[in-house]
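Researcher: Batch entry, complex prediction.
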Amino acid sequence: MSELRHDPLTDRWVVISTERASRPSEAAATKEKKKSEFCPFCPGNEDKTPIPEIYMVLKDGSHRSNTMDINIIKNSEWLVRVIPNKYPALQPETILKRKGVGVYDKISGAGAHEIFIESREHDIKIHTLPLQQVVTVLNVIKLRMSDLEKDPRFRYLSLFKNEGEDAGASLEHGHFQLTALPITPSEVARELNCCRDYFNNKERCLICDILSQEVECGERIVEANEAFMVLAPFASRFAGELFVAPSPEAHHHNFPDIDDKMIEALASVIQRTLARLSKKYDNPPYNITLHTAPFFRRKKKGNGETIQEDYHWHFHIMPRIGKIAGFELGNDCFINIFSPEEVAKLLREAAV
Amino acid sequence: MSELRHDPLTDRWVVISTERASRPSEAAATKEKKKSEFCPFCPGNEDKTPIPEIYMVLKDGSHRSNTMDINIIKNSEWLVRVIPNKYPALQPETILKRKGVGVYDKISGAGAHEIFIESREHDIKIHTLPLQQVVTVLNVIKLRMSDLEKDPRFRYLSLFKNEGEDAGASLEHGHFQLTALPITPSEVARELNCCRDYFNNKERCLICDILSQEVECGERIVEANEAFMVLAPFASRFAGELFVAPSPEAHHHNFPDIDDKMIEALASVIQRTLARLSKKYDNPPYNITLHTAPFFRRKKKGNGETIQEDYHWHFHIMPRIGKIAGFELGNDCFINIFSPEEVAKLLREAAV
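Model: Structure tokens for the complex:
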């Protein structure tokens, strides 16, 4: 069973998940892992993925939830599938238990780890899918997040995508992953703290202010409209890094509240952005992550007011062009060999 | 020229160092980089590394500093060389300038980036060098750190080592790297904050308390004596991660203050630890990083007292067995597939 452990030296949580690997002494063998021809996410191989199938959108627009019968799953003309991760970092069946051990803290690994198969086609990438298919994927993500946030054991939902082997993708067939965590992860906590301090001081959203300053400057903007903005962050950690957020006019703290119009605009802006990146940087491996408000931040305050002005959901797109080495890991300070201004200029020029 | 930039959303500094790469649009080509047969760190190729050579230890035990004459360098029977990095992340010639730009902050990239060539032999690893050679390397590191800390532009010295291509090493020939930074990097700041809060509350060193708790528990100890302790951290981020620190009896905050006896003990414990790791995990790629007190922490307080009880220098050894993917980067929360208890057990059993 997985366990979350807290490091008192850095105030960071780690997931110890030994089920995801063979025993330590045998791990070296995984270095030799060969690319398998077989893809469990391709149509026809539905019996190779875990049941119950959490959610399925069918070609006729209908959907199914929690399907246990593998024959029904196999014979479905599906468009998008949501399945449990076969090697989950966290398991939903677990009772949540928080415990202190001297200077340490730990939590039994209650959580969820779901996979969103984006398409029936093995080789297709997000930016080459039909727009409507991306809209469907985002709608299913919204639906699953809205469902998981009802579970009182969880504090945060982490959505991410690994594209390409160097970005940590173990399967080629396009998929997003969603994890439900009983903690607010360190990176989100950092952002929340910075945003809260800024808001307490100025009564303005830090991210809205960043976006407004970027519009005035213009140098790092890839595209901007009344719904979304895409920019190469001033202090980009990764070569070619991008930040996608609702424009200040569309400020919102909680991704699952997104409406149909914004989902369509988001699908479109993500497709354009990934198309630019793929075109100008030769299909780089990349990670995408969503940052949105954790649940406890969405609870009403004593006076009935909700906390929402001070956080602003967004996606980080992190191409993995260089290696993460000792300087980066030892200092949590990245050396970026690309100028964000040049990245933005290059991507603006890409016809999409 | 490099630039340090501050991200207001995460309170993190990034080094933008475009000299370290070709132009963004040409970067894809670097993916094809072939392993070169030529090694600029091997004897005979001294003219392929930048001058001035910062420091050199010769076979007769003597040394030379700031040598400009390439013929002298080439004809030296050297044991250890310290040279400027050919592609420095930060340049010492730069005037330090701190500037705010709206919500952002930046610093011109004044710093230093030095390379320590550990041996004349191309293929030899730290743990197979003669003990005395490792002692010499550590003494030269101490010497360079003591010299660089006199430069009032700098706040922190970051020592690290990348071993193996997957750990970001661009050259095979064994070397450490030392950077001088005008900021305290985020990872060190986190540790300092946690240690300071703990000390303010309890008047005990957090790291001493961690080490003492680990001795009592025993499960995660690889080895321990009155000088040093090696353990698999409770909340290890990396599979096979290790923590090497002076034992509580030898508590100290500032690495360059290390004495001869402790240097010899450190050389020996690092060799044993890397030998264990290489043996049990099949020579994994790894990063090593040193965490020590930044300069401002070593200044005297108003009452003449120095701050030193609340920090404790140490090395992190991070094997790079798995990939860093979207979950890790998006959350700054790592999934570790090895149990630290099993790692410690396995490494304790390794005969070295």
